[in-house]
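As a representative case, the lines below give one protein's residues and fold tokens.
***
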Amino acid sequence: MPAPNPSLARLLVNVVLDGLLGALGVALAFWLARPDQPLASGFAVAAGAVVLIAGGVPFGLATQYWRFAGLADMRAVAGSALVGAALYALLFLAAGLALPSPSFPAIHALALAALLASSRLAYRLWRDRRDGKPGETGDAVPVLLVGDGEGADLFLRALGRGRGAPYRVLGLIAPSARQTGRRIQGQPILGTIAETESVLEKLAAGETPPRFLIITADLTGDVLGHLLECADRAGLAVRRAPDPTRLAAASTPGAGLDLRPIAIEDILNRKQVPLDRDGMARLIAGRRVLITGAGGSIGAELSRQVAGFGPAEIGLLDNGEYALWQIDLELSEAHPTLARHALIADIRDRARLGAVFEHFRPDLVCHAAALKHVPMVEANPLEGLLTNAIGTRNVADAARAAGAAALVQISTDKAVNPTSVMGASKRLAEMYCQALDLATGEKSGGLRCVTVRFGNVLGSTGSVVPLFQRQLAAGGPLTVTHPDMRRYFMTVREAVGLVLQAAVAGTTAPDLAEASGGIFVLDMGEPVKIADLARQMIRLAGLRPEIDIAIRFSGLRPGEKLFEELFHGQEPPVPTRYPGLLMAAPRTADLAIIGRALDELAQACHRGQEGAALALLARMVPEFVHNTAGAASA
């Protein structure tokens, strides 16, 4: 004999319960309409049960899950009550029976709605109390929620669905003062984020939470920084709350608390810049694109974003086998139908590079290959010059010979008033691409050279953030070269998006008169003090600067300077119609002169003549003031 269907059994229970409530609703309505003659006949009571069940069918009344009764269920309850009362009145009139009073249908509808709603809400409250909700489980962690009303509502609803809720909410801190003093699902809004310290002082007399839970994604920048500072002084942790859809898993016994750390990107407060993705698609779709340095952090992100615009073929060029294999494998999984070519080559090898370009025949070249680590290039200056300056010329010449339409070169803010060999070598690469662009870019079918300059990329190879993360994992200390050192920062995804935006602007925007020979500069926002960045990362790890983790100042290294710049004094910034992009006015020399100087530089490097190479570099980049000692000047 087959086992009974549990869903059907629950449905029958709901039907019976709703029928009983319908019968009770008729008796209550009769008493309210005619207190002097309160009793209804057996027929009247039975009819009340039948018409309510019938009136609830269009609204799915019997299929409701009382355990999770909510606002949508209350709308169905109201509709069922109105239809049931109307059917009951029509039934009485059709049978030739008199209603207790003219207002009986309205009284009947209100009685039904009250009974249906109160029974469902009472059952839910009983289940909540039985299962243990926020504030009633001994193991629940007391927290303060930080965020707007919608985020709080979603989080509290999700929190209320699981058994043994992992958090006990003490109250909310809102972004706006307009919400202070009100309640959301019974939880008081204690104050604004600016009033965090006073809120904590008030709670100190009672119970202080061990952590803040941020429940809205758009809490970033200075506001988030202020919250972190307050939490640091109070010895509290700050975490992002779990996604509401994942909270149920965290609510099961033994599952643990699914708290997410605050990302360092949130502290930078960089707003999303709208990009001309249609223009990028027109530039890339159906064309052959070659990316040098494709295994590096910037080159790999370029490869990902370029692949997303549907090129005909993509060439991934790098001299590191493992890094090249990684990005090639990633693209094979993300874009299995895209024609890819993994090309092992060194941009310093002119003959090999020429053969690769001649075979692949790219339409667009993104040149990200470079040596970028200042101390490493200071220790190996000839290698830096061969890669960054001579290698860039090799790439540009090969692209021109292969008939490419455009070359996009990635530069750096360290090329402005350089104090390091790395920065000066990148400035020399800028100069060559600028001169080549002026010589060929305005010719029909000639190569356009677009140079893009920006600062540090968060999380890139050799950047300070991974270094701090390793030092934190080792228990510190975090090493900062100088208390006043500042740097520009941007996420790698944002930087690459703006690089492609610059490629669109430099090749298709006729209104940019300065584009020929000019340099696109990404709007990096305000520079960040590295010591402050170190303190924030310590706080984000739930630790206290100088108490749990020390910060040590090691002094400037050779080639470093305290402040990076994005524009030279002789290349004033020019705005463009593209958000996030500025233009540095051209500051170039003759292509033939730069070409002969690069020939001499290459000879000196190949002969190992470091002094001669650096002297030639200083002549070509007159603003180069080499910081060989590394000590900060007064």
About this structure: Residues 248-257 have pLDDT under 50 and may be disordered. The first helix runs from residue 6 to 33. The chain has three domains: 6-131, 141-262, 277-620. The CA atoms of residues 35 and 253 lie 53 Å apart.
